[in-house]
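Input.
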Amino acid sequence: PLDGQCRAKAVVYQATISDTTDSPSHTGTSEPEVKKRVSKHKNPTKHREHEQDTELPKKPREMKDQGRIPVLKWKILQPARPHQNGRPNRDPCLSEKPQIIKPKD
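Output.
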């Protein structure tokens, strides 16, 4: 789902959940390979018992419950600064925040 970039590490990613009426997005960071993070998001979308594991699956599940068909699209927005113990300003969340507050296209 990431155009051959599924092994990328320490990235800020975006998932867009779309159907015919809505297309909200979720922005997050992944320090391990991004495919591992995507997998953690996909499992709860398919299996209701894992629904509380991450925030992203709530919207697709809501769409499914309304009879809508959600489509998830993934993209890498930018590299993230990996966490390094004892080093200030290396929190990956600092890379994510500007993307979250950035106006949507």
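Residues 34-46 form the longest helix (13 residues).
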